[in-house]
Amino acid sequence: MTHQPLVHSPAAGLSGVRPLASPGEAVMAPPGLLAHQPASISAATAQLIAVEQARQEVIARLDIAPAADDRMDQLAREMAERTGLAYGFVNIFWSQQTFIGLHQPPPDSGLIPVGRSMSRRHGWCPEVIARQRALPLPDVYASPRFAGNHVTDALGIRAYFGAPLIDPDSGVAWGTVCVIDPEPRPLAQAQHLLDIVKDTGTTVVQTLTAQALSR
What we know:
Low-confidence stretches: 5-35
CATH topology of the largest domain: Beta-Lactamase
Number of helices: 6
Structural class: alpha+beta
Strand content: 15-25%
CATH architecture of the largest domain: 2-Layer Sandwich
Radius of gyration: 17 Å
CATH superfamily of the largest domain: GAF domain
Largest sheet: 6 strands, antiparallel
Helix content: 25-40%
C-alpha cells in the first residue's frame, strides 16, 4: 500500500476551508469544535457536535492516512470508468473533504483538473453525510435545492452520484464515494449508476476496515 502526500491544487478553487457561519452547521465542523462552543448550547447543536466527534473517532480507529492512496485511486478510477462519468472520488471528512482516492479526466479532455481537498461547504457530499443516504443527481439543474453549488460554478458539473461510507458498528457516516460529470445523465440510468457508486462504497469500507484490522 502506497501513501503519497496530498498535493493541493488551486484549480477551480476546490481547496481551502472557510470558517463556520453558525453553530447550527456543526455537523460539517472540524474536529475540536466543542472546545470553541459557548457553555450553553442547544440540544440539537450538542447532537451535531457528538456526531462529528464520533466521525473523527471512526476515522482515527481505521487509521486512515490523510494522503493519496494507490488502492483508493484505483477504486475511484474503476468507479468512474464503470459509470462513464469524468471524475471519481473516495472522500474522507476531516476538517476538509479530503480525496484519498481520486480519478481525473485525461489532460487532453479539456476538463479542469481538481486538487485533493475541498471545503466542507462545497459540493454535494456534505448532503450525503448529513442524510447518511445515497444521493443521485442525474441533472443538478433539475433540483433548485442542489443547482446552486460552487462545484457547478467552478467546473460546470451537471451530474452527481454519491453514497456514504458508514461505520457498521456506530452507524456514523465518515466519508463518501462519488462521481461527477459536466454532462447530465438520463433519469432512466440513475439507479444503475447509483448502484455502481454504492457498490464501490461497500468495497472501500471493507478494504479500509481490513487494513486497520491487519495492522
